[in-house]
Each structure stands twice: as C-alpha cells, then as structure tokens.
Design goal:
With about 525 residues, the chain is an alpha/beta fold. About 40% of the residues lie in helices and about 15% in strands. It contains 19 helices and 14 strands. The chain has a 12-stranded mixed β-sheet, sandwiched between helices. Helix 3 packs across helix 9 and helix 4 packs across helix 7. The longest helix is centred in the last third of the chain and has 23 residues. The two termini are about 50 Å apart.
C-alpha cells in the first residue's frame, strides 16, 4: 500500500506503530520539532519540507550548518536509508531533488535578502541594537519624525544621518520635546554607538534595497511543487540577535501583508524557525506578548510556523500551547534542569497506554527515531507514537559550491536581487539641505562684500582717503539707552528660518505618521 497520500505529509512509521501523517488541512496550526544535537532534527525538517513541497506548498527554512542545502540535490540509496525504508514498509520511496532558492543576508551563498530600516520599524530595531527603554523611546520619536517629514529610512546611513540631525539641532530637540518627549544628545550618542556595533556585525548588508518581495518566497516550480527557500545562516548565526530579529521581522511581514484566508485545504507557506530559543532569549515581556499574538493570528493568513530547537522549554508556554503538530527526538537528562525538560516534554503529549512512561521513552530514542503526535479531525491531537522517521528523497548533507552556483543561476530572482539600489532617501535629503544652508550663508557673505570695502570701490576709497562705512558695534547703548546689536547676516536669517519652519511643523504633523503593524514594521502600500 503506498505511503504517500494526497492531503497528507508522510512522517514515518514502525513495525509496532501506525504510520504517522501530518494533515495538510491542519498544518497551519503550527508545530514543534525538538531534540538534542545529533538526534535527527535536521533530517526531520528535511522530510517535512519535502512533503510540503510535493503538495505544492512553498517553504522557508534557515540552514544553520549547511546540511539542509542537500535538499536541492538528488538523494542516494545508501544502505542505512534502504534499510529504514524497508523497516517502515516505505515501498514507494525514491530519490529526487527539490526546487530550491538559496538566500543569504550577506549575498555570498545565496541571493541577497534585504529589508529597509523603515520596514523593520523601531521595536525590532531596538531589540537588534539592545537599546534600553529610554533609547527605544528616542528611536520611536525619530521614526515618527522621519515618517511625518518624508525622510525615507532605507539603509543604515539614512538612520545615522537622521540621528545626527536630532542629536545636534537644539531647536528641533525643543520642538520634539514639546510634542513627543525629551530627546537628549547623550541618548542619541548611545544609539549611534550601538548602530556602529550593528554595522560591524554585518547589519549594513541586510538593510537596503531592493527589499524582499514576499511573493518571491511563495512560488511554485513548473511541475507544481512548492519552492523551498533556504536561508544560508551559518555566518549569520555568528550574530544571533541579527538572525533572530531577521526571522521575526520576516514572520511579522507575512502576518501584516498576507490577506485573511481562514482555514485552507493546505497552507500558503510553511515557515521553519530553527534555533528558536534565540527568538525568546532575553526578550522583554512586551515583545514576547506581540510574538505570541503574531503566532496565534498568522495561521488565519494561511501560514504554518514550525519551531525547531533542542529543548521544548525553550519556547514560552503561551507560544508552545499553539503548536499542535509535534515531533520529539531524544533528550539527554544529566542535570535537574534537563530532567525537568524531559518531564515537561512528556507531559505535552496525549498519553498512549502502550508507551506507559513517555518521559522515559524520550531518553531511550535512537537517532532518527522520535515521538510523534499530530492533529486530526477537528484539531484533536493524536496519541503519541514511537516512530521511525522516513528517509528523505533528497541528499543528506550539503551541496557543493559549484552545485549551489548552478542552482542560483537558474533561480529566476537573481536579476532582481543581486544588484543594489541606492535611491534618494534621508541621507541624500539631509545632505542636500545642509549643502543648501551652507550655500545660502556663503551667498549672503558674498553679497555684503562690496559694502565691506571689497572690489574697485574699496580700492578707490583707499586711494582717495575714503573707505567703507564703519561696521556697526556688536553691542552697546544707543542714544536713548537701548541695546544695539549687530544685525543678522542673510545666511543666519535663512538658516534660522529654515530650522524654525522644520521644527515647528512637528507639532502640526501629529497624527499624520505612516501606519505601522503589531511589531512596528511598516505596512506597505497603506
């Protein structure tokens, strides 16, 4: 009897256990894949991605070690894989490759994947730069000011230039304080230092244009299989906060931009979040609450989210409660905390009388073996079963550099993303304003030069004993006792007028800011 069935993803089976399937109609109820290092999580992720792709469902997954890239290459009938297929009765197992698009924030092992600073928003950017509450508040004011005054924040030089503006212009600071709150030069300086750290970690590669179009993650191949989008994350993982924030931004973009579709026969996209503990480590309560909200609501957009991590307690309870499809590989319990994790993992499953002590079974599992429980019927979890994970059809292990390059040349998105665009944005706008200010001041000085004795008139005046009128005193008493001050130059008058015009408009613009989403990201086209 064939194991592969329409409407289901085949996970595995066993001699004494029923075959385990993930129901596509319930795949947007999210999932969790956990287990210690070396127990088979990556192969399980590969098997699930293949199943979704075969059903025409696009997939996005981060490749932490490079091993997942092998899904783009034809598999091999190795002895241990043939034996596994025979043990579970997987007679229709075959080797094939899968349609893959490689992405890389640094543009080295995949097509560059970018976002603009405006799209990232102040909340996620504050987490990325590890800002405190006061600094985050100033960053929120900066974004509000930029939104209201048409300053496009596309890359990090735009952010740096706008920070320099609000950190040095005292009149602007006063206007911002009256409308939004205090903006001190000291706080701005602290943000600028964190921005430098972000740039040194490679953040400049991520921010810019062309920004990612979500439609390019949701493509299908010519034969109708879902495109598997692989993010090369081995280098990105050296900056774990950038990695986690990037994936969280991408998840929030899916939530904000995709339309409501309710429950579909199969998801529009499945999103695998590997090393999921990085998302929740040191995250403030406010951010955790919004993450929980996004995970809870994104299912109605037809997106399934699958967290992959070593320990099930890495995922907060409010998020874990929403993960209905679970695959638990072996855990090792040598410390009290690890023993607690094993017990917690065992308690999350619907008990199976045949297994008796679920926690004990978790510690007995061999590599490539797992406890599996998925949703069935109206969303009820199945009893947990001890399962041998089916062998993947694609290669176990990474593709070569040459194979990767060949795949990238045929991806169909290289011409769109491999080059950069640097259009006029906040940096150019503010630089232009500064240049115009300097030019105005110089013009004013030049206009006063003849009166100050320059040119032919000054020369003749010197010859015949005349000369330019004496300059007005900088201060002193007039004939009626009033204070006499030197009149402003034209340049000074223009500069102060421009500053007053810009800063005073802050108050008038309240309520006109661009609308942002749950996690502070920009709502495109709204």
């Amino acid at each position: 009897m064939p194991k592969l069935k329409d409407g289901f993803v085949y996970i595995g089976g066993g001699a004494n256990a029923p075959d385990q399937y993930l129901t596509l109609k319930l795949a947007n109820r999210h999932g969790l894949v956990t287990g210690a290092t070396g127990t088979g999580k990556t192969v399980t992720l590969q098997v699930l991605a293949e199943g979704f792709s075969d059903a025409g469902v696009p997939v996005f997954a981060a490749d932490i070690k490079g091993d997942l890239s092998g899904i783009a290459a034809n598999g091999e009938a190795k002895d241990f894989l043939v034996k596994r297929a025979k043990d579970i009765g997987f007679d229709d197992w075959h080797n094939t490759d899968y349609p893959v698009t490689f992405w890389d924030v640094f543009g080295e092992q995949g097509h560059p994947i970018r976002a603009t600073v405006a799209e990232m928003g102040p909340l996620l950017l504050s987490r990325l730069m590890m800002l405190n509450d006061v600094q985050e508040g100033v960053l929120n004011i900066l974004f509000r000011y930029a939104d209201e005054h048409g300053l496009l924040l596309l890359d990090l030089k735009d952010l740096r230039e706008t920070l320099a503006l609000i950190g040095s212009d005292k009149e602007l600071q006063a206007a911002l304080k009256a409308s939004y709150g205090n903006v001190s030069s000291t706080t701005v300086g602290a943000i600028q230092r964190q921005l430098l750290v972000l740039e040194q970690q490679g953040g400049a590669h991520f921010f810019g244009e062309p920004a990612l179009d979500l439609k390019d993650l949701m493509r299908t191949s010519r034969d109708g299989r879902g495109m598997i989008n692989i993010l090369a994350a081995d280098k990105l993982m050296t900056s774990p906060r950038l990695y986690a924030t990037f994936l969280l931004w991408l998840l929030s973009e899916l939530f904000q931009e995709l339309p409501e579709v309710g429950d579909l026969d199969q998801p529009n996209l499945v999103f695998f979040f590997d090393e999921a503990h990085l998302l929740f480590d040191d995250a403030p309560d406010a951010l955790l609450s919004k993450i929980e909200q996004v995970v809870r609501l994104v299912r109605s957009k037809g997106v399934g989210v699958y967290f992959v991590t070593q320990n099930p307690i890495d995922v907060p309870d409010k998020v874990s409660a929403q993960l209905g499809n679970r695959v638990q590989h072996a855990l090792r319990a040598f410390t009290p905390r690890e023993q607690k994790a094993v017990r917690a993992a065992g308690e999350t499953f619907r008990p199976n009388p045949k297994l008796k002590d679920t926690a004990a079974v978790i510690m007995e599992l061999s590599t490539g073996e797992a406890l599996v429980s998925t949703l069935e019927g109206k969303g009820t979890p199945t009893m947990v079963e001890r399962t041998l994970i089916r062998p993947p059809s694609s290669r176990i292990g990474p593709v070569t550099a040459d194979e990767r390059r060949r795949i990238m040349t045929k991806s169909g998105v290289g011409s769109k993303y491999d080059g950069t665009i640097d259009r006029e944005s906040a940096y150019e706008t503010l630089q232009k304003r500064a240049a115009e200010k300097i030019a105005s001041e110089q013009a004013a000085v030049a206009a006063q030069s003849p009166a100050a004795g320059g040119g032919l008139g000054g020369l003749l005046g010197g010859i015949f004993g005349g000369g330019a009128p004496a300059p007005a005193p900088t201060s002193g008493r007039g004939p009626r006792g009033g204070v006499v001050r030197q009149p402003q130059s034209m340049g000074e008058a223009i500069a102060k007028s421009v500053a007053r015009s810009v800063s005073s408009s802050v108050g008038r613009q309240v309520g006109n800011a661009i609308v942002r989403g749950v996690l502070g990201s920009l709502l495109r086209g709204r």
